Amino acid sequence: MTDSIMSKAATMEIPINSNGDTGTLPEDDSLEQAAKVQWSLDEKDLQQVMVSGPNLNETSIVSGGYGGTADGIIPTSSIKGSNMHHSSSSSSMTAEETTRGVAVEKLETMRKWGLNTYKCTKQMISERFGRGSRTVDLELEAQIEVLRDTKRKYETVLRLARALTNHFYNMVQTQHALGDTFADLSQKSPELRDEFGYNAETQKLLCKNGETLLGAINFFVSSINTLVNKTMEDTLMTIKLYENARLEFDAYRTDLEELSMGPRDAVTMARIDAAQQQYQVQKEKYERLRSDVTIKLKFLEENKVKVMHKQLLLFHNAISAYFAGNQQQLEQTLKQFNIKLKPPGADKPSWLEEQ
What we know:
Layout: H1 2-12, H2 27-40, H3 43-52, E1 60-62, E2 73-75, H4 76-128, H5 138-188, H6 193-260, H7 266-323, H8 327-336, H9 351-354
């Protein structure tokens, strides 16, 4: 075994040049190096090498076959480290590319928003100072103005009806308290029992009829509030979107007209094509919202007439029956419009809930 190690050591120390010839190292020097290798390995080292065996982390793959040169030996640890490094590099590059893509997308969105805001602001200022032209649909603009005026007037009706409800509620509560006081005095004043009793019954009847009228007025107020603050407001929100679309449409139309009047070089033609595309998009949006506004105005008018016809009839019949003292007609009016009154004390918690 010593002889094989010595011969291997001597062989590994002989340099080979590019032509396969031996180097200039003298033979004596080679033998001397082999002898040094032999005597440096004692018996204890040999036993330790044989017992422990090779370490898996230091295992090498020989690419050139048995007896290959040292250049063909590839440590496996270097392969594992290379693969791990390549994998981590790929994942980091993928994450970096994703982040970069999101950032580029946000920047592009901000750029488009800024450009659109600039064009619309420029168009708005031009219109206010009378230098810019605007697209006008005279018939639709007149209908929109009528709706806004109608909404203002209906808001006045709603405010006054709420004020009437509050005042009438206070009056009914006063009548209720006055009737209780008359009834108490009727029990404690024998000489005026009949007079106090008549007045107590009258106030209680007025209080009952007043509560019935309050139910009708509350229903009237609720219906007007829905019409004004929901139905009309929804149509006005669509009108606001339409007006914004009209402003954007005119802004891009003006931009296209200005580019068309300029020189027709290659750069300008490319800008004209892009402006033409944007103009077409804004035109389609404007026409779509104009159609939506027209349809909503039509349905709103039909709904307004139907609702107000019912509510005005209810208000008139209830008020007339109450002040005429016709209790039966007042109750019949509420049944006609399917208005159900809460029983007295329904808003108060029960004695179980108060415990």
